[in-house]
Automatic annotation (TrEMBL):
To bacterial alkanal monooxygenase alpha and beta chains. One of its GO terms (molecular function) is oxidoreductase activity, acting on paired donors, with incorporation or reduction of molecular oxygen. Residues 22-310 form the Luciferase-like domain. GO terms for cellular component: cytosol. It comes from the Bacteria. This is Luciferase-like monooxygenase. It comes from Shewanella frigidimarina (strain NCIMB 400).
Amino acid sequence: MSILADIPFSLLELAPMREDASVAETLHGSLRYAQHAENVGINRFWLAEHHNMPGIICSATSILIGYIAGGTQRIRVGAGGIMLPNHAPLVVAEQFGTLASLYPNRIDLGLGRAPGSDQVTSRALNRDDSRAEHFPEEVSELQSLLGPRSQRQQAASAQVRAIPGEDTNVPIWLLGSSLFSAQLAAKRGLPYVFAGHFAPRFLYDAVELYRREFIPSAVLGKPYVMLGLPLVAAPTDAEAEHLSTSSKQRILALIRGNEMWLKPPVDSMDGLWSEQEKSYVDNFLSLSVCGGPATMKHRLEVIVQQLGVDELMFTNDLYDSEHRLRALDILMSVKQ
């Protein structure tokens, strides 16, 4: 039996949008995708928060979580993540307390400290460039707001209560692509997610730091690491390589500051990018799991053996919606 058999597989959704599609069509497609994920045994379905990015339709993250949770039955649904500097902790607690009340034991709250946008958009969202510096304090505030009332009665902040939210104890995860969140997650005894799907540089250092400095907490007795990875799954390596050009075009648009519509695959990227741009895109996607079933299985087994991760979370941004669904079938087959 593969070592992957006991590793939960989860998904991170950015609601990728084609230029010829509508917002409604895109979001209906995300729900269909989540329903198929639930049917094949995917563990979690998280939505990322991004703003002012044509082609990525997940800015109203908590609303979309409710939409996906309402259209599914069992799969855990959550944020991967909420960019806390963009929101007052009380508002986040109220939103996720509401979700947790409607969908008990199914809602996760991943938190990040990046803006999920450029600096101009960030200022439009919160008008305070220093908010990220207070991330540890705001994580504590959010934990308190979602926790039992009895633990807050003596604190001055107890005058402010998240209703709903209080005592829902929504599971909180810390997300990151550097050492900062790894260290904070270890200190707080929280589960940690490394964003290997777009920023692989500090992966090994961050995971090692998190495990080394982890302090058990009331919510987690030992370290728990989830790793985000880009996925391009197809019946053959050749087809997967062809389909991967959609993601490559998207990252190319990102580094050029262009709109990020999901584009159809091309026969070759030659002529579409410079050598410097190719290098940047390749580094961005260096942890990509791309190929047919045998190639994918080997790649994932190596990653799990090297890092000892507890869970894997995949982005799966293929141009054709049927190919996205097929990719999940192929992904789950490598567990056997």
